[in-house]
Amino acid sequence: MTQDALKAAVADAAIKEIEPWLDRNTVLGIGTGSTVNLFIDRLRPLRDSFRGAVASSEASAERLKALGIDVLDLNSTGTLPFYIDGADEVNANLQMIKGGGAALTREKIVAACARRFICIADESKHVARLGDFPLPVEVIPMARSYVGRELVKLGAEPVYRQGVTTDNGNQIIDCFDFMIDDPAAMEARLNAIAGVVTNGLFAARGADVLLLSKGDGVARTALS
Ligand SMILES: O=C[C@H](O)[C@H](O)[C@H](O)COP(=O)(O)O
């Protein structure tokens, strides 16, 4: 099976996961990336069965709107029943690295507002230990060099992601060769550096459900 076929299969599985719970008041939290794009596309036939969505990026908002799905302001919605998003890496505890598409901060905000985070991924994203994928850190532009020096002290090799500005007007540093033994502690440690907006570790609050697409089907793991 190709990676695209695996992504399509997990997008189908995510629709099956949420469809029974949709009603006219439901507002979905929607992530960002190629896997979620396939999920968004599959929402089109259901668009009259739920109220709308909160998007974690301008790109996802545009895709939702193009399908006729209302995009709502998170400040007007309160708690969301579901947040559906992909991952760059996910471990057995459903902790993740995210932000390969630079959407990490809004993703973390929308995820924080959701009762249930459903991570949708293909098997290439499943890892024993987080950190092979370079960990993204969103920084206030004037703090970029300072944050880079602090990341070196923590053992990372920071690389400025040139030409990328986040939806929040900030910049991204990717941390290569990073040993992440305790993801929740590292998430907190990085967020404590002045000038860091957030980092791509979703560890203190990981996913609640992982739908993992494999050659022989989609495996479901639920922590709650
Ligand atoms: O900023 C991007 C997000 O964290 C994505 O969820 C992540 O990069 C996975 O994207 P994809 O489904 O394209 O692999």
UniProtKB/TrEMBL annotation:
Any idea which GO molecular function terms this record carries? ribose-5-phosphate isomerase activity
Q: What class of enzyme is it?
A: isomerase
Q: Which domain of life is it from?
A: Bacteria
Report the EC number(s), separated by commas if there are several. Answer: 5.3.1.6
| UniProt pathway annotation | Carbohydrate degradation; pentose phosphate pathway; D-ribose 5-phosphate from D-ribulose 5-phosphate (non-oxidative stage): step 1/1
Question: Which is a Pfam family this sequence falls into?
Answer: Rib_5-P_isom_A
Per the record, what are the reactions this protein catalyses? aldehydo-D-ribose 5-phosphate = D-ribulose 5-phosphate
Q: Which residues bind substrate?
A: 32-35, 85-88, 98-101, 125
Q: Which Gene3D superfamilies match?
A: 3.30.70.260, 3.40.50.1360
**What InterPro entries does UniProt report for this protein, alphabetically?**
NagB/RpiA_transferase-like, Ribose5P_isomerase_typA_subgr, Ribose5P_isomerase_type_A
Active-site residues? 107 (proton acceptor)
Which of UniProt's keywords are assigned here?
Answer: Isomerase
Membership in a protein family: Belongs to the ribose 5-phosphate isomerase family.
Known role: Catalyzes the reversible conversion of ribose-5-phosphate to ribulose 5-phosphate.
**Subunit details for this protein?**
Homodimer.
What is the protein name stated in its UniProt record? Ribose-5-phosphate isomerase A
- What's the name of its gene? rpiA
